[in-house]
Amino acid sequence: MPRRTSVRRNTVGLVAATALLAALCVASLAIGTQHVSLSTVWQALTTTVSGAGSATGDEWIVRDLRIPRTVLAVVVGVALGLSGTLIQGVGRNPLADTEVLGINAGAGLFIVTAIALLGLQGIWTYIWFGFAGALFSMLLVYLIGMAGRASATPVRVLLAGVAIGAVMDGLGFAVRLRYPRAFDNMRFWDAGALDGRPLEVAAAIGPFVALGAILCLVVSRSLNVTAVGDDLATSLGGNVVRTQVLSLVAVTLLAGAATAGAGPIGFVGLMVPHAVRRFTGPDWRWILAYAVVVAPAVLLAADIVGRKVIAPSELPAGIVTAFVGAPVLIWLIRRRAVGA
Length: 340
Description:
The protein has helices at 2-30, 38-50, 58-91, 103-118, 123-145, 154-178, 180-185, 199-226, 230-235, 240-262, 268-280, 284-309, 317-334, 336-339.
């Protein structure tokens, strides 16, 4: 009976979170430097779906500017939420996140270098460098974290990630200063902004995010087994190596796609798992399911706040999430349970 009650509660909570995400999507289409009425939003959506007529005035703002921005926020939010949750689960590290561990920085460095040295422009040309950078930085962080005689601990991996991220951020800035063309192209991307991207960007990264989400679904059940430790998980019949390899591929796809699409946006994958775990409990299947809807809701909310906080200018969503996420990270580090 308690298990049935927990499943019912989690299901109701997931439906409520989905409704909140839908409401934030509508708000993202209506709120901005120029407010648009809900009737105009609906008219723009219907004409976009039907393909009838050309949009003018406020409808043009919704169709050509805010719909691509909102869709990109949802796709990137899903990628960030799942990648952060998966890293925390498979690595048994409550402080893990693609930004904290330097994975986003690695993807960003490879993308900036490809644009500067190879002259790549379209997302279909440099997204592959995002995957390579995410994989390279993730492997490097864990190799450094496991180096030496001491075993890899969450704190060692965290410190290695912070160090690698700082180095790669520095190299990325050096490339941008050396090649002004790359700096101009990456100016808004570098801050984690969602505006100014056509719908083709979300369409380009969407398949990779979907593939990463499928891999998360495949390993979700085994995450509950591997959470007890490698030795005990093996004795219980869990395939630890398979789970780790699939998780590595999933995080590479999710982090690389998110960084290529919107730039290095941090702390979403750190905050969301901790927030939903208080409601769902320790079952990683539920945590991953909630991350799919809660993470894009958080990113959309940050983007909406960024539009209004310094109006008529805008603050990139990546800066807003950093303002919120940095205190959360400090709070997590200071918790006695994490220290233990």
